[in-house]
Amino acid sequence: CVLCGRTDDCPQKYGEKRTYMEKNLTVHYYCLLMSSGIWQRGEEDEGVDGFLITDIRKEVTRASKLKCNICKRKGASIGCVAPKCKRSYHFPCGIQKECIFQFTEDFRSYCWEHKPVQKFPDKESRGTSQCTICLDLVEQLPMYTVLKSPCCKNAWFHRECLQYQALSAGIFFFRCTVCNNKDKFQKEMLRMGIYIPERDASWELEENAYQDLLLCYQHCDVRRCLCKKGRDYNEPDSKWEIKRCQCCGSRGTHLACSSIKSWEENWECVECRSIFAKSGNYSKRKKPSLTTSEKTDGTTCLSEEPSPKCPRQSPGSQHNFLQSPKIMCQNNLSPCSHLELPASNRVTMSLSPLMSNRNWSQRKKYLRNQRMEASNILKELKLQVNTKTTRLNINSENIWNSTLKGFRQRNFSPTNTIEIKFTNCKNKLGRDTSASKRHFFQLLMHHLQNSSLFEGSSAKNLSLDFQAVKENLYFEAGKMIAVSLVHGGPSPGFFSKTLFNCLVYGPENVKPALEDVADVDVAQTIKMIKYANSLPSLQSAVRDCYEFLAAAGCLRPVTALCDKNMLVNDILIHHVIKRIMSPLESFRQGLKTLGVLERMQMHPDAFSSILCHKPERLSAETICDLFTIHCSSDVNEIEGADFWMGYLQDVESGESVVTLEDILLFVTGSFSIPPIGFDPEPTIKFLNISYPIGNRLLNCLELPITKTYEQFKNKMDITIRNTLRVERE
C-alpha cells in the first residue's frame, strides 16, 4: 500500500486492497478514506471510488514528510483531529494502538489519548455476560475491544464481532441483535469506529440465493408409493400428477397413491392431519381419502399383512403362550412359521404367569409400533451406504479422541461401510467386523451420554461448553449419533423432550419446563420466583437474584403477583434454549448427516421413541421373534426348538445364571436390539456339536442337539457365562 507501506491483505481490518497495474498503484481502501489531506473530487467511477490518482500521489508526497508517532517511520497520512494534538500515524498502526476512526461525515480520526469512549453509570454492575453474536463471554468493562449497545442495558459485544456483523449485514440490515434498533445503534457504532458499508447485505447479493423459493415441491411422501417410475415422477393431468398438502405445501402425493379422484379434492399430509386432530378441528374438515397404509387418526399403519405368527393355547388352558418361532424349512428356505408338522411336534411351551399377561398398556404398544416405523425409516436411509470401506482404529480406553480423529480423517465418509479395529483389544472382539462395530457404537453413545456436551440426569439437554463450541464438537456429536443410527449402532435414548422438540420443530416453538434446568442454583432461583405467594415475597426474590436476571436479560417490572409467570418463562427460555443456540445449531447440522434430521422432522413420533426412550427391556417373546430357526423336519431338531423356547422362559423367570441380554450379547455382540435391527438377521441352527457357538459375523446361534432339556440348559449356561466372563476380563 502506497500510504501505509504494508503488504497485508485483510479486508476486515484495512478494507479492500486495490491494485492498478497501469498506474503502478496499490492502496488499502480504509487508508485512503482516513487520510487527512485528500478528498473525493471525482465521480464514483473515476480514480479509486472518486479519489483521483493525481490527488492520491499528492497525498503520498505529503505523508512522506510526516513521521508516525507509533512505528517512527515516514508516511503517516492520518492525523488526530483533537485541537492542539500533533500526532500522526499509519492506519494499521492506529488500529494496533487502539485509535478510533469514524467512517462517517468528515471521516475523523482520534489518537489513543483523545478517542471517544462509552460512558457507563457508576451504579451499573460489573461482571461478565455473553456477546450475543459469538456467544462467548465478554467483560463488562469500558475497553477498546468491548462495546455496549446504546439501546439495550445488558447487550455487550466484542468489537471484532460487531465489525464482522456490519460488513456482512450492510447499512440496511446492521442493527442491535437484541432489540432490533437500527438508527440509535448505528449512530453509536459509527461514533465508536465501526465501518458500516453502504450496500445491501451479503446474503442479498448472492446470485440465485432465493432460487429454491421458486421451486414447487414435487415428491410423493405417502408410506407406499404406487408409481413404478419413482416418488419424484410427475405427469400432469394423470393419476401420477403430484398434489401438495393444502395446509403446509411441503408434502406431496400422487393422486393414485392417495386414492384422490380429481385434482379439486383436498388432501392433507399426515403431519398436518395430526395437528388438526390434536387441536380438535380435524373433525370439522372434510376428510380426504387415505392410502391403504395410512390411518385416519394421523398415524401410519405399520403393516397390513397379518402376522405369520399366532398365539396358541394348549387344550384346557386359557393362558396365552409364546408365539411359535420363525422356522425356515431346509429344503427351500421358505418361511413356515406354522410348522406343517403333527401337533405333538409344535412348540407349545407356555409363558410364566407373570409374562402370560398380554394386556400391554397403550403406551407400550404405541412405543413398540413407533420403534418399528423408525426401524423401517433407518433401513431406507441405509441404502445410501455403499460397499467402499473405511477403517477406524479405535482405542476403547480413549473412545472419544480416537473416534474424533477417525471421523475427521480425510478419507472418512458417512456413506462408506465402517470397519472397526480396536487397537487395545487382543481377543476376537477386536477382529469381528459386525460385533466390534456394534460394541464401538455402544461405547461411543455411553461416552456421549456422560460427556460435558450434555447436562441433566436421565433426560438430557445440550450444555454450554465454550471450548466444545470452538472445537466444533457439537457438530461432531450430532454426526456420530446420525452415523450410529444408520450404521446399526444403538440410539442415544437420553434426549429430553425439550431437546428433541428444539431439533424437530425449532427452538422458537418450544416451551421448556423447570425439569430441563440442570444447574441447581438456577433451578433454586426459578423456584423462589415461581412459588412466591405474595407480591412482597416476589419482589424480594427478584432483588435477591438481580444480577442473575440482569445478565440473562430477563429483568422486567414486577407490579403484580401474576408477573412471576412471565418472568419464570423468560428465565427458562434464556437458560434452556437461548443460552445454547450456538451448540444447538451445530448439533442440528451434525444430525443432518445421511438425512437423519430431515426424517426426524418428517416422522417425529417414530424418532422420539428411540431418541427419548431407552430400548425396550428384552423378553422371552422378543428374543423368540428375533431369531429365525433353520431346520429340517428332523424330530430331534424340532425337539431342540422346544428346548430353546423353554430355555428362554427359564432365563426370563430367573432360573438361569445368564440373562436374556447375555444371550443377545453372546450371539450378536450387542446387549440390546439396535433401532435399525440386525444385519444379517439373527438365525438359529441345530447341529451335532458339543457346545453352543455364537457366530457374531453372521449373527448365527449354533445350538447342540441334546437328548434332554437339562443337558441343553447346562451347556447353554456354562458356555455363555464363561465366554462373556473371558471377554470382560
Automatic annotation (TrEMBL):
<keyword id="KW-0863">Zinc-finger</keyword>
<keyword id="KW-0833">Ubl conjugation pathway</keyword>
<comment type="pathway">
    <text>Protein modification; protein ubiquitination.</text>
</comment>
<dbReference type="GO" id="GO:0004842">
    <property type="term" value="F:ubiquitin-protein transferase activity"/>
</dbReference>
<protein>
    <submittedName>
        <fullName>G2E3 ligase</fullName>
    </submittedName>
</protein>
<dbReference type="Pfam" id="PF13771">
    <property type="entry name" value="zf-HC5HC2H"/>
</dbReference>
<dbReference type="Pfam" id="PF00632">
    <property type="entry name" value="HECT"/>
</dbReference>
<dbReference type="InterPro" id="IPR034732">
    <property type="entry name" value="EPHD"/>
</dbReference>
<keyword id="KW-0436">Ligase</keyword>
<dbReference type="GO" id="GO:0008270">
    <property type="term" value="F:zinc ion binding"/>
</dbReference>
<dbReference type="GO" id="GO:0016874">
    <property type="term" value="F:ligase activity"/>
</dbReference>
<feature type="domain" description="PHD-type">
    <location>
        <begin position="1"/>
        <end position="115"/>
    </location>
</feature>
<keyword id="KW-0539">Nucleus</keyword>
<dbReference type="InterPro" id="IPR059102">
    <property type="entry name" value="PHD_PHF7/G2E3-like"/>
</dbReference>
<dbReference type="InterPro" id="IPR011011">
    <property type="entry name" value="Znf_FYVE_PHD"/>
</dbReference>
<dbReference type="InterPro" id="IPR013083">
    <property type="entry name" value="Znf_RING/FYVE/PHD"/>
</dbReference>
<feature type="compositionally biased region" description="Polar residues">
    <location>
        <begin position="289"/>
        <end position="302"/>
    </location>
</feature>
<feature type="region of interest" description="Disordered">
    <location>
        <begin position="283"/>
        <end position="317"/>
    </location>
</feature>
<keyword id="KW-0479">Metal-binding</keyword>
<dbReference type="InterPro" id="IPR000569">
    <property type="entry name" value="HECT_dom"/>
</dbReference>
<dbReference type="GO" id="GO:0005634">
    <property type="term" value="C:nucleus"/>
</dbReference>
<dbReference type="InterPro" id="IPR042013">
    <property type="entry name" value="PHF7/G2E3_ePHD"/>
</dbReference>
<dbReference type="Pfam" id="PF26054">
    <property type="entry name" value="PHD_G2E3"/>
</dbReference>
<keyword id="KW-0862">Zinc</keyword>
<dbReference type="InterPro" id="IPR035983">
    <property type="entry name" value="Hect_E3_ubiquitin_ligase"/>
</dbReference>
<keyword id="KW-0808">Transferase</keyword>
<dbReference type="InterPro" id="IPR001965">
    <property type="entry name" value="Znf_PHD"/>
</dbReference>
<dbReference type="InterPro" id="IPR051188">
    <property type="entry name" value="PHD-type_Zinc_Finger"/>
</dbReference>
